[in-house]
Every structure is written in C-alpha cells, then in structure tokens.
Amino acid sequence: MTSIRDDLRSLPVLLAFVVVVVAIPVLALRIVGLAVCVVVDGAERIEAAVTGAVGIPPLAASLIVLTPPADLGQEAQR
Asked: Membrane spanning segments where (predicted)?
C-alpha cells in the first residue's frame, strides 16, 4: 500500500501543487460547515428546551417532538 506522500511524489510537481492548493480550501470549507452544523444544532436544542419549558410549541420546522405512548406505563408494570 502506498502512502499519500508517495502518491504525490509520483505526480508531476505542478499537478501535485494544484492538488494541494485545491485540497486546502476544500478541507477548510468542510471544517466551517461542521462548525455551522454544531452551532445550528445547539441553537435548535436550546430553542426546543426553552419553548418547551414555557409551554410554547417549538418553532423549528425540522424538529419533531416525540411523546411516549399512553400505554407505556402499563406495559412496564406487567
């Protein structure tokens, strides 16, 4: 199995440089996208907790609040 360094060394220098120059912004955008995902997820969780605590239905369109079935307690007693 070859390593990434070996693969880059087998490429012409200019092509290897282009691959590295393209890879750096792609990785940076992936990191930024992950950070945005974490922030948005955290904000939605806080919103759901706060609005649920005061009795207002959550405003997030992507949020589904699941309630336990009514007979769940009866099954646990059996």
From this structure: 12-36
